[in-house]
């Protein structure tokens, strides 16, 4: 049994779209660093606390996690032949990505409410 939503063209398109979003964020950060680089932790916190920056970082975090999940999932499906081992590794990777995402959003939220 397979999940029709995560095979074929759809994950390929998601990978490409998320890569473009991540690249756009990298260019945005590069421009910020070159033009008006925050000098200390308080400047960075103030920059991240701006609603549009906080939202952009959050959306980029989602794109990174989704991109990582699809890429790692495809590698595991290709190279782990044992179904039980595959399920175990996918569960560990998924849990790690979910935990990382929750930690990232908590950090963004804590900076935003300060």
Q: How are the elements arranged and paired?
A:
Layout (H helix, E strand, L loop, with lengths): L8 H27 L5 H9 L1 H29 L3 H31 L1
Please characterize this protein's 3D structure:
InterPro entries: SQR/QFR_C/D (IPR034804), Succ_DH_anchor (IPR014312), SuccDH_FuR_B_TM-su (IPR000701). The chain crosses the membrane at residues 12-35, 55-72, 84-105. This is Succinate dehydrogenase hydrophobic membrane anchor protein. It is a single chain. The protein is mainly α and 114 residues long. The chain has a single domain (4-113), classed as Fumarate reductase/succinate dehydrogenase, transmembrane subunit (3 helical TM bundles of succinate and fumarate reductases). The protein contains four helices and no strands. The chain has helices spanning 9-35, 41-49, 51-79, 83-113. α2 crosses α4 and α3 (51-79) packs antiparallel against α4. The longest helix has 31 residues, at 83-113. It is elongated, with a radius of gyration of 17 Å.
Mean pLDDT across every amino acid position: 92
CATH architecture: Up-down Bundle
Largest sheet data: none
- The name CATH uses for the topology is 3 helical TM bundles of succinate and fumarate reductases
CATH class: Mainly Alpha
**Principal-axis shape:** elongated
Count of distinct strands? 0
Low-confidence stretches: none
The CATH H-level homologous superfamily: Fumarate reductase/succinate dehydrogenase, transmembrane subunit
- Fraction of residues in helix: over 70%
Please count the helical segments: 4
Fraction of residues in β-strands: under 5%
Pathway: Carbohydrate metabolism; tricarboxylic acid cycle
Transmembrane segments: 12-35, 55-72, 84-105
Protein name: Succinate dehydrogenase hydrophobic membrane anchor protein
Function: Membrane-anchoring subunit of succinate dehydrogenase (SDH).
């Amino acid at each position: 049994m397979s999940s029709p939503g995560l095979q074929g063209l759809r994950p390929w398109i998601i990978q490409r779209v998320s890569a473009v979003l991540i690249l756009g964020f990298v260019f945005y950060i590069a421009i910020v660093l070159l033009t008006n680089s925050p000098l200390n932790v308080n400047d960075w916190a103030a920059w991240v606390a701006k609603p549009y920056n906080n939202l952009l970082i959050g959306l980029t975090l989602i794109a990174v996690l989704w991109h990582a999940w699809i890429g790692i999932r495809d590698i595991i499906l290709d190279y782990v032949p044992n179904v039980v081992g595959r399920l175990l590794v996918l569960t560990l990777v998924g849990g790690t990505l979910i935990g990382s995402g929750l930690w990232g959003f908590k950090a963004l939220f804590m900076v935003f409410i300060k």
